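FIELD: query
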Amino acid sequence: MFTLAPAVLAALLSTAITWLSMPLLQRYALARPNARSSHRIPTPQGAGIAVIAATLLVAAAWTYGALSLPLIGSALLIAMVGLVDDIRPLPVLLRLLLQATAVAAVVFTAPDAARIVPALPLALERGLVLLAGIWFVNLVNFMDGLDLMTVAEVVPITAALALLGWFGDLSPSAGVLATALCGAMLGFAPFNRPTAKVFLGDVGSLPIGLLLGWCLLELAWHGQPAAALLLPAYYLADATTTLFRRMIRRERFWSAHRTHFYQRATDNGLKVPQVIGAVFALNLVLAVLAIVTVRAGSTMVTIVSLLAGAVAVASVLRRFSRPQVC
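FIELD: result
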C-alpha cells in the first residue's frame, strides 16, 4: 500500500540532521570558489550525510530490514569515499576503484533471474551493468554543480518511482527507498536553494547516484528498460554528451570543468532559477512519459514516448548551449 509516511519522516530527519551539522560543516568542510565553481563565496559542503542517513534509516526501518544489505553497505562505503574526498581529494584511480567495488557489490549479488536482456550471457550483461553503474554514480556527482540542481533531478525521478512502486511495477523495497530519498531531498532543499547555505558534497552526490541507479535498475529488471532510460534522460544526455565532446577534444575529461550544458547555460545569460526551473519541468515531462510507457504496456506508446523524451531533452540542451538574447 502506497503511503507518504516514509517521505515525510525522511524529510524531517534530513532537515534536522542538516541543521544540526551546519556548524561542523562550516568549520571542517568548506568549499571555496575556484575557476570551475558556480558559487562565489565559501560555502559548507557535506549535507549529503543528512540525506543519505535519513534515506537509509527510514527505508531500512519501513521495509523491516528487507532492504538489500549489499546495497546499504555499498552506499555507506561510497559515502565514506565521498566524505574523505570532500575534505582531502583522493587520487582518481583509487576513487574509481572504490566506486567500482561498491557498484560491483550491488550488481553481482543480484539474483540470476534479474535480467534486462536475457539473450546476452549473464556475465556479459552484469559487466555492462557494472560499467553503466559506475558511470551513473559519477555523472550524478558531475551534475551536482548548481544550487538545487540535484533536487530538481532526483525529486521528479523518485516521485515517479514511488508511484510505480504503488502500482506494483517496482519491487516494494525499491519503491520505499525511492519514496524515502524523495523526502530526504525535499528536506535538504530549503538549505540548498539559491543562494545555497550548504552543498551536498561528494558524500551525498555519490551515494545518491548509487541508490537512484539501483532503483532504476530494479525498474529495468521488472521489464521496463524504456522507463528506466526516460527518467534520468536529461542527466544522461548532458553528462554523456559533455564527456564525449571533451574526449574528442583530447581534454583531461576526468578533471573538473565548467562545460556541462547547465553550466554553459549560466555562462550564456540564464539565471540559476531559470536553469533549475527548466530542468525540473523537463524531468516532470520525462516522469510522465516514463509512467505512461509502463502503464500503457504498448510498444508503439513506448517508441513515441522515447522519441518525445529525446526531443524534449534536446530542446533544453539546445537552449542551454545558446547565448540568451536580452
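FIELD: remark
The chain has 13 helices and two strands.
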